[in-house]
Amino acid sequence: MKIQISNGRVIDPANGIDRNADVFIADGVIAGVGAMPAGFEANGSLDATGCIVCPGLVDLSARLREPGFEYRATLESEMAAAAAGGVTSLACPPDTDPPLDEPGLVEMLKHRARLPEFAHVYPVGALTEKLAGVNLTEMAELAEAGCVAFGQANTAIVDTQVLWRAMQYAATFDFPVWMQAQDAFLAKLGVAHDGEVATRLGLAGIPVAAETIALATILQLVRETGARIHLTRISSAVGLEMIVAARRSGISATCDVAVHHLHLCEHDIGYFDPHARLDPPLRAQSDREALRRGLADGSINAVCSDHTPVDDDAKQVPFDEAEPGATGLELLLPLTLKWADEMKLPLVQALARITSDPARILGVEAGTLGIGTAADVCVFDPQAPYPVNRATLKSQGKNTPFLGLELQGRVRGTLIDGHLAYDGSWS
Amino acid sequence: MPNMQRLANLPEAEALLASLVKTMMPHVGPDTALVGIHTGGVWLAERLHVALGLKLPLGSVDVSFHRDDYASKGLHPGARASSMPFPVDGAQIVLVDDVLYTGRTIRAAMNELYDYGRPGRIDLAVLVDRGGRELPIGARFCACTLPEPLPKNQELVLTRDSEQTLSILSLMLKDRHDA
Amino acid sequence: MRNPQLNPHGKLQHLLTTEGLPRDVILAILDAAAPFAEVAEREVKKLPLLRGKSIFNLFFENSTRTRTTFEIAAKRLSADVINLNINTSSAAKGETLLDTIDNLSAMQADMFVVRHASSGAPYLIAGHLAATGREHIHVVNAGDGRHAHPTQGLLDMYTIRHYKKDFTELTVAIVGDVLHSRVARSQIHALTTLGVAEIRVIAPRTLLPTDVERLGVHVFHNVEEGLQGVDVVMMLRLQNERMQGALLPSRQEYFKSYGLTPERLARAKPDAIVMHPGPMNRGVEIDSAVADGSHAVILPQVTFGIAVRMAVMSMLAGGS
Lengths: 427, 179, 320
Prior knowledge:
CATH class of the largest domain in chain C: Alpha Beta
Shape of chain C: globular
Radius of gyration of chain B: 16 Å
Mean pLDDT of chain C: 93
Number of domains of chain B: 1
CATH superfamily of the largest domain in chain C: Aspartate/ornithine carbamoyltransferase
CATH topology of the largest domain in chain C: Rossmann fold
Structural class of chain C: alpha/beta
Strand content of chain B: 25-35%
Strand order of the largest sheet of chain B: 3-2-4-5-6
Oligomer: heterotrimer
Radius of gyration of chain C: 19 Å
Shape of chain B: globular
């Protein structure tokens, strides 16, 4: 299949490209950008007039809910959502049911996900068995089965001795360790950021100290063990400062932020809206500002959707009973564009945070339109209105604080390995 | 101020009051319990109580809680506490109101009285009967009956010239504003 | 975001919290309560206002006291009252809150009086009723988690006005576990709206919520200093669970440092009043001498509470 994507504005941060050009695809890989490769004869074409052509998005956290939570979402529905969101590579956290702590489960997941219209799945394996924080998993076996990193999703390892050993063991094989910094005891009963909104609404709070205390522990252990650490879903200004300071003192660590935390803060809980119940919680306005700036200046390396489909029943309950999480695969692009626009960032810089930068963290060849790389391409119209409602969302999870609002920026087409996985405007 | 004017053909309220006292005097005694209906009826009852030299203390009722328009209009603002400083069981009560119109206020006042006990007798004294009755209610003591019922959009109210009790009363006509 | 307590015409549709309740609405409730208080003095303590209406007391958290006062208030308005203790019924079998509401709505409910352990539960109910075309059903919050207990806040305001008349000159102290108290939050919002001169909270740090000053209060950790010259002392109940959560060492120590004794009360103004939402823990937050003394207005609070609840229910249920 030889496809020519014409008349689009190509933005490829990995290769520093931002110009009007055609993209040529042959046999599932990028054959050329700009000049037509010699002997190329297109048998398929896509007209990207008025659109931006960029690498397919790389999402560092998307819950597919398989295995185990099929009533909330299925691989099929969430992969459709991914494609509609322009996401062609995604990492899924280990908190499936059962957790991804056995090679067989990882193999089955990868096998299930191996359809041409499905995004590439990069499982993050469990660091400890059952995520219980007691026994190590067979990381080498899990890596062989396809895990690109090891983590605990949202469950902290309370025993610091176990945490030390887990990081040490992972470091032996140079496996990346992904951790969410949240102290289990300080976060135990909390449902919202510990601040003036929680005080007013009478909600149990999770203080910033829950993040910073856990961060201090993790960063010290990085110094001790030399583990390659990636900190997931940074939520506070002080937390980010600690990571930046650690880097200055020689500890290397990458980190990401969830896209909802770039736009929302504790006030968006409003009248106890369960859609605003997230993990980590939405914090103060000042935290949000720091996260927005941090992503812009690169101290936060990437932004992800932290896609967490939750069924209606689990959200139509009082706030403190609601399951945390928001659906986001389809909103990662428009919300990133919104942030870029508000921060007055050039698109080539902003799109790096959802293409080349997360690909580098994953350690895979993705998020690029380099010649010879997989033809994972996203074509989107940055001006197109995108009303967010139950009908337009392809994910089975309709749980987003942006429900009923109109965003800007809509995917027109998504190619995975040169195959048209999503057709938003061409029939 | 809403549109108020003195009713051209209506005698002064003070004159009506004097006439009412004369009418009532032969029929009241030491057992007579006067109960004024808020607010105009209370002012009137205060004057009558003194003029008739009654012994039992003055009672008052606020009919807000017994109005029949609660379902459509909600709780009437400005409700005051009622006061019944004498035993109602077996009492010889004269209800006092300023203007008798549809009769609904009187019905509500009687319902209210029954929350306190079972009266021996209830009579009604009013300054003006403006016609337009919607219930079978009549005043035994009435100083003035208008020859023609007033139109529905006109309200006949009692006013007084100061906040003090026993101040001078006047009748005013005003356009009805609320529905 | 529109205030969910008011309908599009600005009329009170639900009573969920004192926060954001317009001043004239609060005053209207206090004004309406006075004549309702008089009804308690009559032979026949009944008014026909809510005749034919069905009021469901939905108590997901046990409370005989509050439920009883709501029941008395509703019955004095001639309403039919149905009491539901949800611990022992469907919810224990796994029925969701909204399913329970749907079932009861199908039984022609006119009003839900709801007490729930989760902050915000009444909002979920009110929102669901609006979304399912049942705007005619009113919700009264009888206490949700730590968030609000608006009828308690309002009856406390009624009590203060009864004894002190003018709010604007008053210094009010709230003493005790503010962190967990929905009563304290409702009191603070109402006092602020009514324009009191100063609101103080007095408690150890462990019992104060983060950023509590942002609610517009002055914080005191020393009870003697905090009570100096106050006009109104509002006590909060100390619950036993606080000792388990590493918030306090013991009841004895709490009484030693924060208990309201006659000596401490002497620091307040000579005509200060002492209030308590009940039930009291004698010898823990309050000395018996004070509880039974001349400054305490705790029993009148109970009487006023019935009148205030009658006023609230009447204001909600009437008018189309």
